[in-house]
Amino acid sequence: MPRRTATMLASTLVLIALLCAGVLIKVPYSEMSPGPTVNTLGDAGGEPVLRISGHKTYPTSGHLNMTTVRVTGADYNMNVAEALYGWLAHDNIVVPHETLYPDGKTEEQSSQENAEEFSQSQESAKVAALKELDIPVASRVVVASVVKDSPAEGTLHAGDVIKAVDGTAVKAPQDVAKLVTRHKPGQEAAFTIVPAKEAQAAEKAGKEPEGTEEVTVTTKKSDEGDRAIVGIQAGTDHTFPFEVDIKLADVGGPSAGLMFALGIVDKLTPGSLTGGAFVAGTGTIDDDGRVGPIGGIQMKLVGARQAGAKYFLTPEGNCATAASDTPAGLTLIKVKTIDDATKSLAKVRAGDTAGLPSCSTG
Q1: Environment class of residue 57 by beta-carbon count within 10 Å: exposed (0-12), middle (13-18) or buried (19+)?
Q2: Is 248 helix (H, G, I), strand (E, B) or coil?
Q3: Per-residue pLDDT tens digits for 51-64
Q4: Residues ≥6 apart with Cβ < 8 Å to 132
């Protein structure tokens, strides 16, 4: 066999071996890529994303698109070839597997956590939107969950309304922990509550619950130190003056909060919030309308631009990363609160785009 032919054959065999190794060798990485965007003003799966009843609504136009990121599953093991391709591709990001699934979290656990965060983001979006419009929302502190085998199990239940601890009125979830930790482990904490069933019945009847109960729970020492705990997670439950329903399947996490809130504001106010423009965005939102950063901002920018967005509402905490690699034709708008967002959209409507708060890499 001629030397040149032998060399070519050997090179080919080496290349085949490397390709096989690239496919067979698994690496601890996961991939993120742009996911679909959904107009919160429109329909998804044949149903309106936002449905409001019991209050006057107005026609809308344009887009207020929430954005998503696709990720490989917790049980999926990338091979070397896939990782190399992902690192070289502009529209994908390869990250350590533990970045997406810390502490060995399974795909089921991650999906459950994302579903819970998504549900909470919907609740906060409703509250933030109505507060932005000066529409009163009644709120109350409740038992969000009870830890299994904790002192509170069997005495306090999810949905119980917490009115006071040791006779001191409770106004926010964090008040509960502060009052409980005034005790030493082993001491009793007295809770003034409205049981969940009574609270729910009163809410359905459109009334305030009548009467309270006094229960005591013996505190124990926390696993982290000498702090007294009873084993509950306190949260906030809201009573809305009319029905606001958010429906969107196969989406999880808290990052759509801002866009849901803006969609609600748009439907409840005359005129178009966007002036017909294609606006996309992302960001968590709390009950007071503060916008928080999210993960996968670069993928969301790509997905938004591919969908046709011209403007992107960007949480302040994501601005530097977003500004470092912004798709051509997409204008970033920095937002810290829902009020920032509505004021910026007013500038978009008026064509005053030079006055928009922008993101910078600094």
Answers
A1: middle
A2: coil
A3: 999 999 999 999 99
A4: 261, 265, 289, 338, 339, 342
Compute the distance between CA of residue 256 and CA of residue 264 in angstroms, rounded to an integer. 13
Residue among 257, 248, 259 nearest 66 (CA): 259
Identity of the amino acid at 72: T
Cα-based distances in Å from 4 to 11, 12, 18? 11, 12, 21
For residue range 60-105, list pLDDT tens digits in order. 999 999 999 987 766 667 766 665 655 566 677 766 766 667 776 6
CA atoms within 13 A on the CB side of 165: 27
What the block records as the tokens of 63 is 């887009």
Length of the chain: 362
> What does the alpha-carbon distance between residue 190 and residue 164 come to, in Å, rounded to a whole number?
8
Residue 315 CB neighbours (<10 A): 24
For the chain, counts of helices (H) and of strands (E): 10, 20
Task: State whether the Cα torsion 346-348-349-350 is positive or negative.
Answer: positive
Q: In the numeric block, which tokens belong to residue 262? A: 């803006």
Give yes or no for a contact between 348 and 356, defined as CB atoms under 8 angstroms apart. yes
Retrieve residue 178's tokens.
């502060």
Name residues whose C-beta falls within 8 Å of residue 150's C-beta, 6 or more positions apart in sequence: 220, 229, 230, 231, 232
Lookup result for tokens 């920018």: 301
What's the pTM? 0.80
